[in-house]
Automatic annotation (TrEMBL):
GO terms for biological process: phenylacetate catabolic process. This is Ring-1,2-phenylacetyl-CoA epoxidase subunit PaaA. Pfam families: PaaA_PaaC (PF05138). GO terms for cellular component: cytosol. InterPro entries: Aromatic_CoA_ox/epox, Ferritin-like, Ferritin-like_SF, PaaA, PaaA_PaaC. One of its GO terms (molecular function) is phenylacetyl-CoA 1,2-epoxidase activity. It comes from Prauserella shujinwangii.
Length: 311
């Protein structure tokens, strides 16, 4: 009966055990889990674009091989996240449809342009660094298929972060112009990276419920602070300045204080008016339309082999 099922669900959450696809879940849990997993999957797929843009212009074979591997990893992350959403009853074609018609979100960060190869390094360092910070706790998220997907994703994200940092270290040991490129890219990506963690806790409509259901293990502001604290020493080691005059160690709090984030810009990007929103979605839509014949052929082939087996 419904009360029994609900007790079982609440008990599973309270015991810190995993919810699995076979388990009954409240509609709200299903809805928010599909929402988060779909947005996450879309982010991985849209996230292939800013860097994919540089594959043909990588400065060496080594950098090209690294970048290709990284962008392929992102496709893989997107695909198994869509599979995780399917275990909750979501339809993958429908999720894609919602993405290409602008009815479902993806991370704000991928709506910024990549102007030169230093951006590839800074995306690895800051964007993938922020992604790891946000996703490592999700390995303990209450929904089993999502939490398990996060384990592999985080391992691959660590490689992405390291390749970025190593690229930047190399550039910082290069010419004055290369050092300027790294500083410029850092200036452009720092604030958008802080926005990746989502709105401040006071303006985050989903956090309280997602924390209660142990979908999220930390609030947006907690993870943002953790990211700032771990990134400041990395910036020092690299020799770049983070573009925030208010950034300083606060011995009382035991954390770095930092300046106010421009939440108007965040809202603008979320509403679809960021620098590259239209381009990103149009590119994804075109790829989807151009791939229609492949999906049709695959479906026809699957139907034919099924008929063959049934004979
Ligand atoms: N970009 C776009 N949308 C965002 C962002 C962002 N940076 N931050 C928050 N939002 C959206 C939320 O998805 C939510 O959307 P809704 O209209 O569907 O409800 C709304 O803004 C309000 O935010 P919150 O209530 O704080 O939402 P939530 O509890 O889901 O927290 C967060 C947002 C932290 C992003 C969470 O969903 C999460 O941890 N997701 C998994 C990680 C992820 O998606 N990473 C993708 C980028 S990293 C990468 O792919 C390399």
């Amino acid at each position: 009966s419904e009360p029994d099922l609900e007790r079982h669900f609440e008990g599973t959450i309270a015991r810190d055990a995993r919810i699995e696809p076979r388990d009954w879940v409240p509609e709200g849990y299903r809805k928010t889990m599909i929402r988060q997993i779909a947005q996450h999957a879309h982010s991985e797929i849209i996230g292939m674009q800013p860097e994919g843009n540089w594959i043909t212009r990588a400065p060496s074979l080594r950098r090209k091989a690294i970048l290709l591997a990284k962008v392929q990893d992102e496709a893989g992350h997107g695909l198994y996240l869509y599979s995780a959403a399917e275990t909750l009853g979501a339809d993958r074609a429908e999720l894609t449809e919602k993405l290409v018609t602008g009815r479902q979100k993806y991370s704000s960060i991928f709506n910024y342009p990549t102007l030169n190869f230093a951006d590839v390094g800074v995306i690895g360092w800051l964007v993938d660094g922020a992604a790891i910070c946000n996703q490592v706790p999700l390995c303990r998220s209450s929904y089993g298929p999502y939490a398990r997907a996060m384990i592999r994703i985080c391992k691959e994200e660590s490689f992405h972060q390291r390749q970025g940092y190593e690229l930047l270290m190399t550039m910082m040991k290069g010419t004055e112009q290369q050092r300027r490129m790294v500083q410029d890219a850092t200036d452009r990506w720092w604030w958008p990276s802080l926005m990746m963690f989502g709105p401040p806790d006071a303006d985050s409509p989903n956090t309280a419920q997602s924390m209660a259901w142990k979908i999220k293990r930390h609030t947006n502001d907690e993870l943002r602070q953790r990211f700032v604290d771990m990134t400041v020493p990395q910036a020092e080691a690299l020799g770049v300045t983070l573009p925030d005059p208010e950034l300083r160690w606060n011995p009382e709090r035991g954390h770095y204080d930092f300046g106010e984030i421009d939440w108007t810009e965040f809202k603008r990007v979320l509403s679809g008016a960021g620098p590259c929103n239209a381009e990103r979605v149009a590119h994804r839509r075109a790829a989807h339309e151009n791939g229609a014949w492949v999906r049709e052929a695959a479906a026809a082939h699957a139907a034919k082999s099924r008929r063959g087996r049934e004979k």
